[in-house]
Amino acid sequence: xxxxxxxxxxxxxxxxxxxxxxxxxxxxxxNSFQSTGNIGTAFQECPNCKQEYQNDVRYNLERARMSFVxxxxxxxxxxxxxxxIHRVRVLDIENDSDFIEGDKICFKMLSIIDEMKSDxxxxxxxxxxxxxxxxxVVGLFNMNVxxxxxxxxxxxxxxxxxxxxxxxxxxINMLTAKMNMxxxxxxxxxxxxxxxxxxxxxxxxxxxxxxxxxxGEHHPITIRRGELYAHALYRLNQGVAAERLLTKxxxxxxxxxxxxxxxxxxxxxxxEDVKERRVFIDSRKQWFxxxxxxxxxxxxxxKGPVQVPDCAGxxxxxxxxxxxxxxxxxxxxxxxxxxxxxxxxPVVCHGLVDGVHLNGKIGDTRGxxxxxxxxxxxxxxxxxxxxxxxxxxxxxxxx
Length: 399
Hints:
The chain is α+β, with helices and mostly antiparallel strands. The chain is built from 11 helices and 12 strands. The chain has a 5-stranded antiparallel β-sheet, with no helix packed on it. Strand 9 (362-369) and strand 10 form a beta hairpin. Helix 5 packs antiparallel against helix 6 and helix 9 (220-235) packs antiparallel against helix 10. The two termini are 49 Å apart.
């Protein structure tokens, strides 16, 4: 049996046989249950680096944890539901056996909830919270299945979950369920969902702050939510804030989880995309990537042409780095009068006579009209200003 390691350990540490990890987790779980009433975290976290397992190791350990609880603690419905929820979340519904297992788990969870309702203490907030989470997870499973029947079922489960989350005052989960419900409704009606960008930004920020407070900055969930928040910032052309946040997340994930961890790779990819300086070349009426200045800032080296999404801030799918348009890319040196930074591009002001206090100030471009860019500054006490093209320089690296 091969040695495995899919956590945040580095070097030669952390390797073990999967069967040894399971045996240790079961022993730790029994001891933990006797003292605390739960089975601890040994099925989820490496005892060495104290970080979560991921990928195939996580998939197999969630199956082992479910089997362990059903074998030894099946009479504890809350614990049973907890492991079922974690198991169904790692299943790949595109895989036939995983889909069948997920369908059985959803039925099992709903059956356990029905049985629990006969308990005289059912009305306690802990039980109600568990019912809400189960309904949400079952709704998510049906949404991901994607058939018309399953989408209709998902609407019902999300609706019931929203009612319970609302009664409990759980705003984060309520908003998440509402967002997924909107996605389901859009799919059923055959339309592309239209997002409220401002609402998406506020929601993403709330989620990031919530998990930052609950789990701390090192946890993979916090890092993923931070990445989503940065993406929302980027979509609204807040390039400086997005890049600052992604730079911080990338450094944290690299330091804590290592360079090959899923979180680190995902954040690094997002940061790479955000750091691309998309510019419009007026003489060619095409978008390029700006690479650097030369000739004392009088010329700009660009590479392209490239595609830029309709949402000028861009998309996290890095379309600009893939596709047929790269077959014909060329590198050019153009006068800066021909190179216009795209929306959300980090810039610095220079050479201003009126508004000299803005020289050296960093901001991002949010619009262009009558030869002037609307620049929003990083310093909160500075009002947005309309700045001429010749008084802006692209920042290729944020200081």
